[in-house]
Each structure stands twice: as C-alpha cells, then as structure tokens.
Amino acid sequence: MLFQKCKMKHANISLFVPHAGCPHQCSFCNQKTISGSVKQLTPEDVAKTLKQAVEDNVNPETTEIAFFGGSFTAIEREYMIALLEETVPYVKNGSFYGIRVSTRPDAIDEEVLSVLKKYGVTSIELGAQSTDDSVLLLNRRGHTRDDIIKASKLIKQMGFSLGLQMMTGLLGDTPEKSLKTAEDIISLKPDTVRIYPTIVLEGTYLAESFKNGTYTPQTVEEAVDLCSVLLKRFYDNGINVIRLGLHSGGNVEEGYIAGPYHPAFGELCESAIYLKEAINLLQDKYPLENTNLCSLTKKKNITIYVNDRELSKMIGQKSSNKIALKRLGWEATVKGMKTLKQYEIIVE
C-alpha cells in the first residue's frame, strides 16, 4: 500500500491487489515488481491503511481510495466485498470522496457494476492497453477491442467516472497503432487516461522475447516523441492524463531490464510539447524557405513566455530545450506569464 499523488492535486490511497483476479499472464506484466507487493491484500490491511491516511490529514475533497494491481471485478466475489466493506465507514463519513478500482474490460457487466455502486465506488479504470486486436492477441491480453468499447459505454451509462489505460511499444505495436488507440479512446470520452510506455520487467514474457531478440523496446527518445503527441491530443480533447509513465519506486528499478523507463518521464513529454510549440511559432514567423534557421551564424535573442508554473518544462531538463533552440539559432530567455494556459506560449 502507498500514498500516490497524481496531477491536478488528485491523490490516491493506493491498495495493491497483485495479480488477483487476472485470468491471463500478459506479456508485460509482473505485478509484484510494479507494486512491490509480496503478499495478498487483506481487509485488515485496508482498514489499517485508511486509518493511517486519516490520521495523516489527507484532503477528503481530492483523495480517493484506489484498488490497483489486479482485475478487481474478477476476483472472488466474497473477497472483493470484504475489501470494499472496510472502506464504507470512511466514505460515509467523508474522509475520502470516493473509491477507484482498476480492472479488465472483459470483467465488467451490469451485475458487478451494481455491486460496486452499492459500496460507493465512483471511478473505474480499464486496462485497455491497445484497441488493435492483433496487438492485444500478441501480448496475451485475453480480451478484444469490442470488449473495451462495450465495457466503457456500460460504465458511463451506470454513472461511474471512466478511466482508460493505454500502453505504447507493445509487441506488434507501432506509433500509428498507438495513435489509432488514442483516437479510439478519445471517442469513448473517458474522464481520465493513463499512458504507459512498455518497459521490460524481469519474470515476464517480454523479458524472454527481449533476451532472444524477438522484441525490441522503444528508446526513451522514441517513447517521449510519441507520448508527447498523445498527451497533447488528449489535452486538446479535454481529457485529463493523470499518469504518464510508471511510478518510480515500488521495486520497478530493481526489476527493470530494458525499455523507456525514466523517473521523470511525464515531465520529459511535457517539455517536448513546449519545444515543438516554440519551434512551430518561430517557423511561422520565419518560414524555413526564407530563413534557414540551422545556418544562422548570429544568434537571435528571443523571449518565450509560458504560464508561471510551466517554466521548468519550457526550459527542459538540464536546459535541454534552450540548448535545442540555440542550435537552431535562437538564444532564448524563458519568463512566466500568469494569464497563459498550459502548453500556451508567446514568443517575442
């Protein structure tokens, strides 16, 4: 169990149910490595964790109880209810504003949603990962694109907040297929999205495939380039991305073999968005057919304005964005302007 803070001041009191309810061993999955959990969650664990969270004065207006790690709606029903029953007093007295559960698209029907509704569950996240049936099959997901669409629509119809998770760089995946998955997710109008670039963890089918040369993971640069595009598309469509990249800690670094894992992956993607926006603005003002930016011998001084809270993202890690602009002939100073929106910039 751990306290996991997300974007937009939202926080989860995360309770991990490793592999519980999972009928398949997906190609990428080693829940023990991801969560750090080594034993099954008990009702007593739930009660203890929630009691501690209340004593630590978590904000009840922004904090959810969250069951992650397995397929919550596919676990043995009595066990699922026993875990939920420990949350009832805390939700009823307003200590938390709701309960979030993570599950599989093919483990959703009206009956189980009625049970979740009874116990105060407010948000349901589906591990969609891809909407390409060939990718789902290669990665041993055990469900189809149609399962994702059907479950998503039913969740929304029954009044739950819908979250969808997608992955990039899976076996058989391509940037084009990931972009199509994103468009499919946008069409389902979820409230939240998580994007995970695939990394290779010890004890998985992907680890075997990587070692025998039949799978090549994305590089960090490739994953950032793709995920920054996905992030901007979700943002432009009013969908909140609450996680981008695996959460650091929980033994992830220990089980890591290969792939685009970075503890600040989300910030790398946001910095990439800002750099692209700046270059596009500069090229609009000084078209490449008239000005070869790369051949400029005299640096042109510019000031880039972004929202005050976004300064570090525009500058980039270790000033990487300023360095990239300098190579193109621009000596950039970055300043804050409170009235600008996220990803909005002004160049002078």
- Give the termini distance in whole angstroms: 48 Å
Spatial strand arrangement across the major sheet: 1-2-3-4-5-6-7-9
Order of helices and strands: EEHHEHHEHEHHEHEEHHEHEHEHHEE
Shape: globular
The number of domains is 2
Query: Biggest sheet, open or closed, and with what strands and sense?
Result: 8 strands, mixed
CATH architecture of the largest domain: Alpha-Beta Barrel
Count of helices?
14
CATH topology grouping of the largest domain: TIM Barrel
Q: Pairing-aware structural class of the strands and helices?
A: alpha/beta
% residues in beta strands: 15-25%
Q: Gyration radius, to the nearest Å?
A: 22 Å
Share of helix among residues?
25-40%
> What is the CATH class designation of the largest domain?
Alpha Beta
CATH superfamily of the largest domain: Aldolase class I
Q: How is this structure best described in words?
A:
The chain is α/β, with parallel strands linked by helices and 348 residues long. The protein has 2 domains: 2-263, TIM Barrel (Alpha-Beta Barrel), CATH 3.20.20; 271-347. 39% of the residues lie in helices and 20% in strands. The protein contains 14 helices and 13 strands. The strands form 3 sheets. An 8-stranded mixed beta sheet has the order 1-2-3-4-5-6-7-9. Strands 12-11-13 form a 3-stranded mixed beta sheet. β1 (2-5) and β2 (11-16) form a beta hairpin. α8 (175-188) packs parallel to α10. The longest helix has 21 residues, at 265-285. It is globular and about 70 Å long. 42% of the residues are buried.
